[in-house]
Amino acid sequence: MFAHFEQLQSSIPTDTVKTLVVAAAHDEHTLEAVYHASNELPLRYILVGDREKINKISSDLGRIPSSDAIIDGYDDADCARKAVSLIRENAGDVLMKGFLETGTLLKAVLDKDAGIRESETMSHLAILEVPAYHKLIGVTDGGMIPAPTPEQKADIVRNTIGFYKRLSPLPLKCAALCAAESVNPKIHDTLEAAQLQTMCEEGAFEDCLLEGPLSFDIAVNRESASIKGHPSKISGDTDVFLVPNITVGNALCKGLIFWGGAKMAGCVLGAKTPIIVVSRGATAEEKFFSIMLCLK
Q1: Which DSSP symbol is given to 41?
Q2: Burial class (CB within 10 angstroms; exposed 0-12, middle 13-18, buried 19+) of 144
Q3: How far apart are CA 97 and CA 201, in angstroms?
Q4: Which domain holds residue 228?
Q5: How do strand 137-140 and strand 123-129 relate by DSSP bridges?
């Protein structure tokens, strides 16, 4: 697995140009990231949104998009429908959320007749560059499903394995994160984590080595596993943290960013294409990293 986002960027093939479709593209940070990505990566873009605002922001950024690179969107729902339709019709390769609510975009994605959902469960994957760790790490699901069921957790693992096939050598080393590394009937998450490990051992997850329950210290530090006498095969080299609920995932990511100096990219999995979904308040850098991640 790559240690830094810069290494990920250098690994992106340059012989194929992909098309990014942005829903509600009339946003400064979004357009800044898109234009930066088009300079650095083999990328075309289609901007769906308020044409006047897009042109004004683009001009302020020193760019003049061609008229055919913009599709008029008259409100958030219209932007979402048109952007999703472009992906469905194979006119675009990656879908990106601009200045609209995530729920509005996902409603179009999940539409039974015109949407692009492919998996039973859609999940969020955050990829972080953490200065204190030797490679990029994944955290899932800290942005989509508040309290996933055991069945949804299994789907989240499958979504993540499928995405990681383009990122790093498999098997994927996945830690089902809990407060402790032993099963405790009073802590329901540990029971589900143990169930997932059993499923993995029985072959439910191809190209994956999943352990659970696993505490954070054992997952990231082999010495902690040795001190505690835990026979982990992934300790100190975990690729992905499967969190028990959205609160843990959200807090883990934000803690690493604000106190650990981490950089983050994010996307939603389980649709026809990866969907770049970051906060409307996210920096242009985070949005650029997310574009880069989904082009890999």
Answers
A1: S
A2: buried
A3: 37
A4: 123-263
A5: antiparallel
Same domain, 128 and 86: no
Please return the burial class of 183, using the count of CB atoms within 10 Å of its CB with bins 0-12, 13-18 and 19+: middle
**Backbone angle region of 218, left / alpha / beta, with phi > 0 → left and psi within -120 to 50 → alpha:** alpha
Question: Do residues 115 and 109 make contact, with C-beta atoms less than 8 angstroms apart?
Answer: yes
Please answer whether residues 127 and 264 qualify as being in contact, where contact means their C-beta atoms are separated by less than 8 angstroms. Answer: yes
Range from 7-16, 69-78, 265-274, 286-295 carrying the lowest mean pLDDT: 7-16
Q: Are residues 134 and 240 in the same domain?
A: yes
149 and 225 assigned to the same domain? yes
pTM over 0.90: yes
* Same domain membership, residue 227 and residue 110: no
Task: Evaluate whether 275 touches 103 at the Cβ level (below 8 Å).
Answer: no
pLDDT at 284 exceeding the cut of 90: no
End-to-end CA, the chain: 13
- CATH number, position 90: 3.40.50.10950
Q: Do residues 93 and 19 lie in contact, with contact meaning Cβ atoms separated by under 8 Å?
A: yes
Over the stretch 179-224, which tens digit does the pLDDT of each residue have? Answer: 999 999 999 999 999 999 999 999 999 999 999 999 999 999 999 9
Type and span of the H or E element at 22: strand 18-23
Total domains in the chain come to 2
